Amino acid sequence: MRKLRFFVLSLALVGLIWGFAVANDDGTERYSTRYAASYEGPGTDDTGDDFLTTLFASDNQFAGNSFDVGAYTPLTIVGFDINLDTGLPNHTIDVWTRDGTADGFEMVAAGWTLMGSDVVVPAGANLPTHVNVGGLYLDAGDTVGIIITTQENTDFRYTNGGPNIYTNSDMTIVTFRGLSGGFPPGSVFTYRTWNGTVHYVYGTALNRQTWGSIKATF
Q1: Strand blocks (E) in 100-170
Q2: Residue 79 contacts residue 47 (beta carbons within 8 Å)
Q3: pTM for the complete prediction?
Q4: How sure is the predictor about 23, in pLDDT bands with cuts at 50, 70 and 90?
Q5: Which domains does the chain have, with CATH numbers?
């Protein structure tokens, strides 16, 4: 019995150091991200006045995430970065929004509006893939629920745990759940932390294309 306990303890320690192959939420094989790259800054595109990033250090994946954005000052969201693996050459990304929180409404179609879609080339796990969807205005005190999903239903990277809160002087992001494919999703996973960045400009609503053309004149 003592030898058996020693063997089990040794096996557990090896697992902690090297990581076991276990299943992601989408059923694909998961490995430890102990040595994975991480990213804590914005994308390289000219994407607004400022940004707020959660994290880029994933340990799970499926088709999307739900989270809230709350504004402390009038601002317009002009784009997002997400954490998208390179299992496929392209993904179509959908961004859905609703007034108020996303928490508990992920599987309820009523109240959600498709903000926009973008075809993107994945940058790889734990690196920012930019999603060119924007134009959402928030007044000070507003909260909006957001769902970001891939129509390909895989490779959307996120992190186990939550809800987690990320904040700066302009906004707060509260993360909620991982999502299976489709909209509304067929299932949710509690809790999963969205890996990403919200890019925004201050003041009245400008869509991403208008903002880019204005910046190009300076």
Answers
A1: 113-120, 128-131, 136-138, 143-150, 156-160, 165-167
A2: yes
A3: 0.80
A4: confident
A5: 2-216 (2.60.120.820)
